[in-house]
Each structure stands twice: as structure tokens, then as C-alpha cells.
Amino acid sequence: MNARVVCITGASSGIGEAIARTYAQQGFHLILGARRIAKLDALKVVLMNLGAASVEALELDVRSHESVKSWQTAAFKRHPKIDILVNNAGLVLGNDPVEKGSVEDWTTIFDTNVLGVLRLCREFIPCFRRQSKGHIVMIGSISGHQVYEGGGPYCASKFSVKALAQTLRLELNGTPIRVSSIDPGMVETEFSIVRFRGDQERAQKVYQGLTPLSPDDVAECVAFATSRPAHVNIDDIIVMPTDQASVYKVNRLPEEPAPFL
Ligand SMILES: NC(=O)c1ccc[n+]([C@@H]2O[C@H](COP(=O)([O-])OP(=O)(O)OC[C@H]3O[C@@H](n4cnc5c(N)ncnc54)[C@H](OP(=O)(O)O)[C@@H]3O)[C@@H](O)[C@H]2O)c1
Description:
By secondary structure, the protein is of the alpha/beta class. It has a single domain, classed as Rossmann fold. The chain is 43% helix and 14% strand. Strands 3-2-1-4-5-6-7 form a 7-stranded parallel sheet, sandwiched between helices. Strand 1, helix 1 and strand 2 form a beta-alpha-beta unit. The chain starts with a strand and ends in a 22-residue tail after the last strand. 39% of the residues are buried. The structure holds NADP nicotinamide-adenine-dinucleotide phosphate (NAP). The site of NADP nicotinamide-adenine-dinucleotide phosphate has 30 residues, from helix 1 and helix 6.
């Protein structure tokens, strides 16, 4: 049987990188996209060693329509048929309440998390229709189901991703194209480092005293959703750490008391 082909956005770290490793182990052809091409190039070697059929590392900025278009064109030039598109690239910046928020940050969040997904879907769907197959996976979030103070723009962007997945299921009903959303709670990645603009200490505090999901936990859900028979569509998987019951309710071990010196 011919190896299947998957395109993954935001594959240079965290969840996207783990998804790439998981599909590599299953012998897929991989098309990776992100802005940090050096990280993708380094990952390429690892993925080939894990068993990928082939790996293409191509620069992609989901905020640019031209970049999305050339990434999609390059992907379909390399493989006439593509099985899966994983819309994973995303970010959050800051955690200010709305009244103190930065319009520039909101623009980046929406341009990446919402318009980025729209751009990718716009380019891939006509090809998926022509080839009479295709699976679109959104990496949503628990923040697309629940809100928290300081999370306004990010939650609004992930509620939008959920709305897009639901809309696509309606628009693509009657075709073999499937749309799934994988919506995790806390996952330890570079996500909080990006949110706090490189402040590692602040980012680490987010996960302190609890066991968050690993990027591999999320990748397993993506692999499950995309390995069902053609007549089965996994609409949504919400996957949370056992220590997290909601965006607000987490079970944290108390901080270690300072040792007597
Ligand atoms: N970590 C969590 O707790 C969590 C929970 C729920 C959902 N999520 C979602 O999971 C997805 C992946 O996040 P992560 O946790 O793995 O964070 P991460 O480690 O910071 O990875 C984010 C990825 O997105 C890429 N990216 C950002 N802006 C991009 C752009 N303009 N064009 C192309 N790629 C871009 C980054 O690559 P470059 O910087 O190289 O471009 C990177 O590969 C996001 O959609 C996030 O919202 C995360």
C-alpha cells in the first residue's frame, strides 16, 4: 500500500513536532511548515530515522496568503494526493484583561489562529474535493469551550476555530472530506514561553506542581482521529490533564517549603 501524506503547520516545536514524530513512526510522507526553517531542517533527520517515507521542510508563515499558497503548491507538486492537513500553528501573546490589551497582539493572535486556518482551508479544500478525499484536523483548545479572565482574545480565537470546524462539516457534507478538532487542556510546550515573551521562569510556573499533557498525548489523539475508517468522522476530542478539571480548576501540589540553610 502507498504511504499516506500529511501536511502539518507549526511543526517546529511542541504539539506540531510531536504530531510529525507520530506520523513518521507510522511511515507517512511528511510536509512540514513553520517560520523557523532551521528547526524544521534539524527535525527532518530525526523523522527519517523514525521511519518517515519522506520529509519536506518548507518555510511557512500562516499570516501571509502568498506563503500559504506557495506551501500548498509545493506540497501538491511533491505529492499529487494529500491525505491529511493538520492546522496546528497557533499562539497566544499576553494575558491582559481586554481593557488593557494590545491591539497589535490581538491582530497577531487572530491573524495566526483564525485567518491562518481559513487561508489553509481555502487552498486545500478545492484539491481535497478534486481528489475525493482529505481530512482536515484543527488543533483547537479547551479555550474554545471555556473562557478565563485575561484570555479574551485567545479564547475568542479558539471559539472561532470551533465555529470553523462546525461550518466546514456542513459545507463538506456529501463529500468524503472529514473535519476533526482536537482540543487540549494544558500541554507543556513553548506556548507559555511565547505568551510571556521569552520569560522562562514565568512560563514554568504555569505547569508547576501538576502534571500537564505532553505533546505526544495530543499527537496520539490526532493519529486516532485520522485512522478511523472512511465512514467515521471524529468531530471533537477534548483531552485534559487528569490534574485539570477546567480552565480554572487545577490540582497543584503545594510549593516545596524553602530548605533551612
Ligand atoms: N500548549 C498548550 O497548552 C495548548 C493547549 C491547547 C491548544 N494549544 C494549541 O496547540 C497549537 C500548537 O501550540 P504548542 O502548544 O505546540 O506551542 P508552540 O510549542 O509554541 O508551537 C507553536 C507552533 O506554531 C508555529 N507558528 C506560530 N506562528 C506561526 C506562523 N505565523 N506561521 C507558521 N507557524 C507558526 C510555531 O512555529 P514558528 O515559530 O517556527 O513559526 C510553532 O511550531 C496551537 O494552535 C495552540 O493554540 C496549545
